[in-house]
Amino acid sequence: MIFKITPNPKEYIPADQLHNKVGPSFIYHRSSQLFYKNMILLKNLDTYPELYINRAFNYIYKIKLLIRSLQITERTFDNEATVHGAAVENPRTKEGIIITAWADVGKSTNTLLLANKGYKILSDEEVTLNQEGRMRRLHNTANIFPHPSNLKLIKGVNIRERILAWVKLNFAKYSFMNKILSPNFYVKYNRFGEVIDNSYCKRIYILEKSEQRDIQPISKDEAIKKILATSARLWRLSGFPRNIVTEYCFANNIDINFVENRFKAIVGSALEDISVFRVRGQKPHDFNALIIENEEKLQPQLVAK
Fold first, then answer.
1. Structural domain tally of the chain?
2. Calpha distance 288→124 (Å, rounded)
3. Rounded to an integer, what is the distance from CA 267 to the centroid of its chain?
């Protein structure tokens, strides 16, 4: 993806289209503010996106949200789906695992717990998955719930970090504080385990909060629906970004759901060689115990192969 801050984004519009706000593979927006005009040009959304703006005004225009969505869009053209989930590698079988769930169910905590047992880390929040099942790490930092039991698994937590974690744990849970204080504790992956860049996924665990405590395999169709439901929030837009993208799709006759369609095709191909399990429980440690139990049960079979 190309992203550039430039005084005059319009200079990147084809010469024969300079007087148009919408044209083949582009849309241009100029704001109506009295004293300062925001100018935004979006090009090639359905191939490899380009975004040109005259300033990164994020409050109204949500430029960060738009950039993030365009990055995810571009990955689909490289046959990579961006999955909302933790990703680790089993140290014994050398096989990759994705743990996906709705927000605040326990993905990051399970990353910590598995890393403490020697599992190698790719992600605690999002990871790419291609058609062959190859996972690729995107980030270096985890967003950990600052509970004392989680801090024990992180190396070298100093007094300042402990105080900050206590403040987050006790005050960030109030909605009015979320605007000024993130509820999570940010920490580099290498402070709680070995970090790797790539692995091949062989199992996906979908966590669901329930009074029941069990683990069951699910069908490919059900898995695609659940993985899409948890991941679509990464690229779905609101406000100005949604308006400019939908107008681009309208002008260029593009299916507004083209990213989701490509996501389903990529994940569907990958799942041909991946086992998917639904894991039900109440707390992160419930999920972790069931995942470990399942991995140990499968291990003799995998080693035999």
1. 3
2. 14
3. 14
